[in-house]
Every structure is written in C-alpha cells, then in structure tokens.
Amino acid sequence: MRKAVISLLLVSAVITGCGSAQDTPQSATSPSAGGARQLTDAEQLRISDAQQQLIGTCMRRQGFRFWEAERLSLEESRTLGYVLDDVGWAHKHGYGSRIDAKDTAARASNPNLAYRKSLSEQRRQAYDEALDEGIHAPVIAVEIPGGGTLRKRIGGCVAEAEKKLYGDPRAWFRAEKAAGHLRSLYVPKVLADQRFSAAQSAWSQCMKRAGYDYKDPGASRQSVVAQAHRTSEAKAFEAERKLAVADANCARDTDLRPIGEERERHYVAQLRDRYGEALDTYTRLQHQALGRAKKIVGPRA
C-alpha cells in the first residue's frame, strides 16, 4: 500500500506527514533540520512536477518525445506516515489502496516506456544517453548513516533538471540520502521510547473497544494487505475504510501523533552534532528548489 510499509524501520517517518497535503506543516521524508521549516507535501510535489517539466523540455530539445508523469490530485498524493489521524481522509480513502492501484496502473501505462521500446536500438541508446547518460554517466557515492554506501549515475537531462532546481546535483544527492537514512538511527529509539510505547498501547486498547485487535498501526495496515487477497475488491475496500477510520479516531483520542512527533524531534536532536550539516544542507536545497519550481509550474490541484 502507498507509503504504508509494514516494517516499522522502513516507514517514511515514524509520525510526521499525517495531516492533509494542504496543511501539513512538516514533510514525512526527513527529520527536522535545526528548526528550519520542512516542506509540505504540496511543496514537494511542486518540485517534483517542475523536475518532470524540465526533463521533458530537455529531452524534446534533443529530438525525443517525452510525456510528463500522470499526476495524482493533491489529496491523493498525501504522504501516509505511520500514524493516520485524518478521519475524513480515512473515511474516503481508507489506507489508500485504490490510490495505490491507480498510481500503479499509471506507471505501467507510462507512454515513455512504449515510446522507448518503439525506437531502434541505436535511437534507444541515444535516448538513454540523453535522459541520464546511461552506463556512461559519472557515478557519485555517499556513505549513509547506519553504514553502507549508495551510488547514483548522474548525467543527461535528469542531472540538468536537478542542477536547475538544486544547484549542485552531487550536494543534493549526498544531503538527501544522509537525511533520509537517519531514520535507521532514530526510528528504533522512538518505537522503544516509554512515552510513545504507552501512547501506542492506549491506541491498541482503543482499537479493541472498536472491535479490532492490533498492537500497533503497522499491524492494522498489514491485515488490510492480507484481506485484499481473500475477498472481492469492493468488500476489501469497505473493510479497509472502516478499519482506517477506527485507526484514525484512536490516534486522535490517544494523541499518538503529537507524542510521536515530540519524541522524534528529541531523538533527531541527539544526532545533530554528527549530522546537523547534512540536515541543514538538505533543508536549504529543498527551499532553494521550491523557489525555482514556483517559477516553472503552478501548485497541484
């Protein structure tokens, strides 16, 4: 399901990003960075849309056709974090399974895939080189928090678009990956925190009173995935919707989100001595990209 990853260590964030895309004060893609305001879902989407437009302009300039990715609505594109406390959204979308299906179908029917496949071998190679330089692109690497190294080829129209938005694609890649992978360091601490555990237990007791027996929101969503394979789509979605509404109501009643947000900020602050520069760079480059994106595309409806 969209952003509803079952393993708690792989969630987009423990708590943040659960308000509506229109009014969420923080993004669910990174921890807080030294008090600087994190971008909303709507603002991040605007950067993404601008990047798509820049890539398309670049590809067409090099003689290729290019279709920008089909856009979900702003409401559909919300980031679904670990805690869902928007009862209205849950009543309408459940945990987002139908949005997931719509997005998956759009990706599968992406006209760029069919167009590339229709090209001759020589033109296909030229297409790949124009897009990102293919196997000939320079490779950059970054060591991520928690251990390990990530590499990325950076070239072609993709690199050109990132440069126009972020200024330095290499600096952006390093900051983005460092900030994102801090989750492996702070998420386990939040989940083990006494205050958060108590709030999660209260959530579980609330769910029992509503007729559901789950120890945490991750288990609740996992049950929806399992149910989807055992019944019709319509029945599965109705069950998902009812469960998500109960989940959201219990999250509100137990203050699970604000408690989790506070505990998240506490543990992220402990990492600033080592990773503060990466966090600040990440936020600075995001705001820079947003300012440039506003000159390229309007907000998503």
Radius of gyration: 21 Å
- Average pLDDT works out at 87
Provide the helix percentage: 55-70%
Order of helices and strands: HHHHHEEHHHHHHHH
What is the assembly state of the chains in this entry? single chain
Task: Classify the beta-strand content into a percent band.
Answer: under 5%
Number of helices: 13
* Domains, number: 1
Low-confidence residue ranges: 1-30
Distance between the termini: 23 Å
Output the structural class. mainly alpha
The shape, in one word, is globular
Strand order of the largest sheet: 1-2
Largest sheet: 2 strands, antiparallel
Query: What's the total number of strands?
Result: 2
Q: If you had to describe this structure to a student in words, what would you say it looks like?
A:
- It comes from Streptomyces liliifuscus.
- Residues 19-32 have a biased composition (Polar residues).
- The protein is mainly alpha-helical.
- The chain has 13 helices and two strands; from the N terminus they run αααααββαααααααα.
- The chain has helices at residues 41-61, 87-93, 97-108, 111-118, 121-132, 156-166, 169-180, 183-192, 194-209, 217-227, 233-253, 256-269, 272-293, and strands at 139-143, 149-153.
- The chain has a two-stranded antiparallel ribbon.
- The model is unreliable at 1-30 (pLDDT under 50).
Write the layout of secondary structure elements.
Blueprint: H1 41-61, H2 87-93, H3 97-108, H4 111-118, H5 121-132, E1 139-143, E2 149-153, H6 156-166, H7 169-180, H8 183-192, H9 194-209, H10 217-227, H11 233-253, H12 256-269, H13 272-293
Antiparallel strand pairs: 1-2
